[in-house]
Each structure stands twice: as C-alpha cells, then as structure tokens.
Amino acid sequence: MSIKIGVPSKGRLMEKTVDWFGRHGIVLGRAGSDREYAGTVQGIDNVELILLSAGEIPRELAAGRIQLGVTGTDLVREKLGNWQNQVKALAELGFGGADLVLAVPQCWVDVDCLDDLDAAAAAFRVTHGIRLRIATKYHRLTRDFLRDNGVADYQLVDSQGATEGTVKNETAEAIADITSSGDTMHANHLKILHDGLILRSQATLYKSGSADLETEDRVTLLALLEMLKV
Amino acid sequence: MPKRAAIRNEAARLRACFEQAGAQVVETPVLQPAEVLLDLYGEDIRARAYVTSDALRGEQMLRPDFTVPVVQAHMQHGAEPARYTYAGEVFRRQEEDATRANEYVQVGYELFERDAPAASDAEVFSLFYNVLEGLNLRAATGDIGILMAAVDGLHTAERRRAALRRHIWRPRRFRALMDRYSGQAKVPESRVNLLAMVDPMAQAGMRIGLRSDVEISNRINVLREDAAVDPISKNEVAMIDAILAVRETSDNALEHLRDIAVDMPAINGAVDRLAARLEALDGRGIDLTKLDFEASYGRTQMEYYDGFVFGFYAENRPDLPPIATGGRYDALTRQLGQGHEIPAVGGVIRPGLILDLGGVK
Predict the structure, then answer these.
(1) Most B CBs within 10 Å: which of A109, A155, A192, as the mutation test of the B interface?
(2) What is the rounded average pLDDT of the residues B299-314?
(3) In the predicted model, is pLDDT for residue B2 greater than 80?
(4) Could you tell me which of A96, A52, A44 has the C-alpha nearest to residue A204?
C-alpha cells in the first residue's frame, strides 16, 4: 500500500501547494502531460499524489481514501458535519487566504450590519411577498452564521459561480461568498457588512481522521509528517 | 422482539390511549411540500429537515413533524371541536451529533377547540401526564404568552414592539434589540452618520437589485422616527428580566407573576389565563406545588408555540432528548389558515425513548 496525498488539480492553489511541499524536500509533479491528473512524488517512497478538485478533498479525507490533503478551511467546514471528528488540521499553509463574507448592494445606504439586514429582510418580505434571497454556495456556513446571529426572513439560493453577478441579474438581493481583496465585490457594486465576516479561510494541510493504516503505511506517514515539520 | 417492532407496538398502545381519550386517527403523507414549511419556519428548517425534489413538484421535505399536515387536514374538513391522534416516523437531519436519531416514531394528540383554552391545555397536559406516569419523569412547563403580553405592554413605538415580538424565539437578537431600544447599546456610527445626512440617497451610486429606492428611503424614514423615540425605561427592562427569570413551582410562579403584574398591568390578562389553566390542572389532579414553571421555557427550541408549553424529561438520563413535548400554537393555525384561526394545543411522545427507559410499568 502507500500513503495518498490529495492536492488541488489546478491553478494557483496547486502551484503554491507544490512549492510548499518542495520547500520541505518533497517534489510533487505530474506524471505525463500538463493535462494528466496522475502525479509523481519524489523525496520519499511509498507516497502517491492524487490530483483532485479542491471541493472533493474534504470528502475523500473523511472517507479515508486519502490520508493527507490540502484544501481551504471554508470547504472543510462547509462540507463536513462535525469536521473536527473527521479530519485534523495539521498546518495552515499561509496562502489561498480568503474571507467568506456577507455582502449587499452599495446602494443600500441604510444597511451596514446584520441588524440592518434583518430589518431590511422583514420589510422586503412584506413588500415583495418573498423572503430576501441570499446567493451562495456555502449553504451550511451561511445558515449557521445567520441563525447564530438571529437573522430571519431570508432564503438561500444556490449559486455555484459568478455569485457577485446575481444581485444585478435580480436572482438574489445579497450574497455570501469568498473574497480575498474585495475588488470583485466592489466592481459588482456590492459592499461587505461590517459584522458580516462568516469565516476566515486559507489553504490548510489536513490529515484524515478515519484512516486505519497498516504498519508500513503508518511508518511512511510518520516519516512524511516529520519532513513536513507538522 | 426486534427494536423496531417493539417501538411500533408501543406506538400503537399510546395511540390507542389517545383514541380512548376521544381522538380520531389521522394519517398524513411522509413527503410535505417544502414551500409551506420554509414559509413557516424560515431557512433554519433546512438544517433540521431532509429536502428532496423532483422535476414536477419541486422541493419536498420528509416530514420533520406532524403538526403542519394535521393542521392542514383539519382546516380542510374538520368539525369543531376536534381531537386527533397519529403515530408515525418523522425525520430530522443531524449534522452535529451523530448519536442523535435522524428517524424516529412520534405519537401525537392534537386538540382544536375555540372556547375553553384553559380546559383544553389541562386536558392535553394531564393526558400526557397520565400516559407517562410510572416513568418517573420531570415535567417542565412554561407560557410564552406572558412574555408576549409584556412586550405588547411596553411603553414604546409600535414598530419596536413588533420587532421584539418577531424575535421572541431568538433570545440573542431579542436581547440585542432590548439593549438598543433601552439605550444600553451604543448606536452604530454608520447609523449616526446616515441619519446626519440631508440626502442619503445622493451617494447611493449605481442602483442594482430588486429592492427599490422607495424601500430604502422608507427604511431611512423609519430609522429617523426610531431615533426620535424615547428609550424603553430601566423599570420596564427590569420587569422583562424579572419575568424571564421566573422559575419555580407553579403555585409560587403564579404569585410571583401577580406581583410583577402590579407594576406591569399589561400582563394581567396573560396571568389570568395562567391562573385559569392552573385551576383546570388542579381540577384534574395535578399537584401544582410539584409542577415546575419557567417563564422562558420553550423560547429556543419551540418556535410557534405561543402560549402554554410543556416537556417531560428523564432526570436520570440527561443524554436523552425530552420524552414528550407540546404546547399551544394558535399563531401557526392563523398563518396556515390565511386569516382563519383555530386555537390548538397538542403534543407528541417518542415511544422509542419510553422503551429506552424500560417502558411504562
């Protein structure tokens, strides 16, 4: 058998993850062409690289099909119930930083905090006959946050991409989405509520909590974690 | 006997008890239209109920409880007064605690009756009390109606009372609103700046979304009006706190609330209703000197109960959820009936938990 590391298959998150492992003497690479999703690992034996969508890594960790994985805090908390029992965060990697925030149109000059959002939602429901729509792909995190803060009369509508555009397209009144600089929000005439930070996220190395390993693999994993200094 | 069959037998036994008390049996579908439940309970219900869908009927929920379908069935073709009983599975999502059941059997009793609320409350409670006798449970009771009456009686703007009423079941936001309305919490700087502007919409920039300028301006006007309202007095805040702190046996609680009502006559009606209920309970042989009453009971888990609330707990098994819960839900019938209201009180028992406790001796 071998130890499997799950790494995001594309983009800057992948590049930075490869760099981070490289700094610890572990060279991750693609097996064949740039388009192939099989990987190679140098610097340690019996470790396999699995390239995956970042969104699937939490599930694979929880199932124990990979023993280590790099993905965002946001994705682990959104996708895994009781995440602390399913995976263990070993190290924050210092990149891929982004905040999950609640944002409303800039033209809502009367809305600056959750208290305002709640009041606006109540009035909106009376006027329009529907609960105020918040577009997001982070349903669980957003719902828990709004419940903890006692916001009512809203509904979540699913948006898997281009979420900042939903307000202008009138499929939502507000959004809950990831932002790193706030530029995309601003360009789409949205503003972040001043107490609307749902979660601070960054790329994090996780260890599966369910993996029951054979002796040989346990030795490999310990050696690997030692090299990674986690 | 396998556990499932044992639970089904226990459920049948309980339902038979309720039939003997005069209830007719109702059956309801497992799949419920999601829209009705979402409108009632808000988005939070998605965290508690399983949602599924098809291309024809859209979103459906596996029934998280029987209350809504039973009320709907009654409104379509019920005589008055009416008593119903049912037994069947309910389904609850569990995302935090894997040891909690996500599917279990409930047996319920619901009473729709217009003219004698105290007698109806007592009928339902004592029925549950008697059915559960021998299990050595602690009964908890409360009355959301008292807090509602206190809010209705506050000397402040109607909008403020309405906002507080809307958040009766969300204690944290209720507290935040009380702090703001009583001047305990600072007004956010952004609000101060907004209200200082002559024409706040001048800098609103590009308009996007469904919420119109008129709606935004209306809310600013509301905020201006609200800023001019005097704070809720310290005295009234203290009385709300005093009501929320009432926690003693029912006979003492009644006396205590009568004392508070001297300074806050607005709760007199609600306290009279409590007194009438206690009298009716006494008439059915419930010992009021041993019956716990907690004015804030039912505020966090039991949304839509808006009067009498109760629960039965196994004191020596704190790991178990309540064995039975119930209460009065007039407002829910008002909302489902779109103007037609049918005062209702009822409750549910979990037969599986009774068996966990060793069954009724």
Answers:
(1) A109
(2) 86
(3) no
(4) A96
What pLDDT sits at residue B76? 83
Which pTM does this prediction carry?
Answer: 0.89
Q: Say if the Cβ atoms of B44 and A106 lie within 8 Å.
A: no
Q: What HEC string does chain B produce?
A: CCHHHHHHHHHHHHHHHHHHCCCEECCCCCEEEHHHHHHHHCCCHHHHCCEEEECCCEEEEECCCCHHHHHHHHHHHCCCCEEEEEEEEEECCCCCCCCCCCEEEEEEEEEECCCCHHHHHHHHHHHHHHHCCCCCCEEEEEEHHHHHHHHHCCCCCHHHHHHHHHCCCCHHHHHHHHHHHCCCCCCCHHHHHHHHCCCHHHHCCCCCCCCCHHHHHHHHHHHHHHHCCCCCCHHHHHHHHHHHHCEEEHHHHHHHHHHHHHHCHHHHHHHHHHHHHHHHHHHCCCCCCCCEEECCCCCCCCCCCCCEEEEEECCCCCCCCCCEEEEECHHHHHHHCCCCCCCEEEEEECHHHHHHCCCCC
The type of residue at B51 is V
Q: Which residues of chain B approach chain A closer than 8 Å at the C-beta?
A: 38-39, 42-44, 46-47, 94-98, 163, 166-167, 170, 172-174, 176, 180, 188, 190-191, 194, 200-201, 203-211, 215-216, 218-220, 223
Among B35, B43, B161, the residue to mutate for chain A (most A Cβ within 10 A): B43
Asked if pLDDT for residue A54 goes beyond 60, the answer is: yes
| pLDDT of B164 higher than 80 | yes
Q: What gap in Å lies between CA A122 and CA A152, rounded to an integer?
A: 7
- For the domain made up of A3-96+203-228, the CATH class stated in words is alpha beta
- Whether the per-residue pLDDT at A117 is higher than 70: the answer is yes
Q: Compute the nearest-CA separation of A22 from chain B (Å).
A: 37
Q: How confident is the model at residue B42 (pLDDT cuts 50, 70, 90)?
A: confident
Q: Which residues contact A187 (CB under 8 A, 6 or more apart)?
A: A164
Between CA A121 and CA A116 the distance in angstroms is 8
Query: Which class does domain A98-201 fall in?
Result: alpha beta
In angstroms, the Cα distances linking A147 to A107, B171, B173 are: 25, 11, 10
Residue B43 and residue A155: Cβ atoms within 8 Å? yes
> Closest to A123 (Cβ–Cβ): which among B38, B176, B219?
B219
Minimum distance, in Å, between the CA of residue B307 and any CA atom of chain A: 21
d(CA B348, CA B249): 23
Where in chain A is CATH 3.40.190.10? 3-96+203-228, 98-201
Rounded distance, CA A159 to CA A73, Å? 19
Among the partner-chain residues B47, B176, B209, the one whose CB lies closest to the CB of A105 is B209
Domains of chain B: 1-115+316-361 (3.30.930.10), 157-232 (no CATH)
DSSP letter at A169 equals: T
